[in-house]
Amino acid sequence: MTSIDLNSDLGENVPDRVVSDDESMLRLVTSANVACGFHAGSPEGIRETLASAAAGGVVIGAHPGYRDYENFGRTKVDIDSATLQAHVEYQLGALIGLAAAVGGTVSYVKPHGALYNTIARDERQSKDVVAAIRAIDPSLVLLGLAGGVVLDVAERAGLQIAAEAFADRAYQPDGQLVSRTEPGSVLHDPAAVAERMVRLAGEGVIRAIDGTDVVVSAQSICVHGDSPGSVAMAAETKRMLQDAGITIAPFAGV
To answer: Where are the beta strands (DSSP E) in 115-238?
Structure first.
């Protein structure tokens, strides 16, 4: 692999719940997954992050989630198809409008949190999310977990897709992410995180939590903006990838 994208989940801050340093991350990443207000963020904060991304030439993606502000969108919601589709359409429409207001363009969609993990396995909710994207703008690329069900569903529906790997999350042997409720699920050491991503880019594998290697084919790497030490992890990952001869470049919007 000679090129890979570096992304982060941003636009999630509100005055009483500041979780990320968006300005610093936007100087490091090539793509920004911007919250749409259901799981985190406020209209004014989201708009500010969008404006900074647009001004800095960072590709913008929509980051819709379950309507679950209290739990930061990290609790699975039992939701019917019509409601889920409408909720995703609403979020996409809002972010596209705010991005246009600051001179930006939304190029892709990366679902958030529990919704992201659910559609990595659940075909019904995957179809609901894909239907929402197609209804709003079928040119949007869907970014999802490498090997996830939603990527197959989206591709069959005619959407462009991109696969993602996580720098700061532990993997199960089957390629799924270790639940955040489990010890060791979130990684924090910048050097260890960066070394994992250099190996991903060079060999196409990630070490799972049980010590085995998982084959992962990904076009984008995520460092969660709300993880402690996220800026240091993103900076070290970018530095080590570039030192290994890997170009950091967006997967969409170019």
So the answer is: 141-145, 161-166, 205-207, 213-215, 220-222
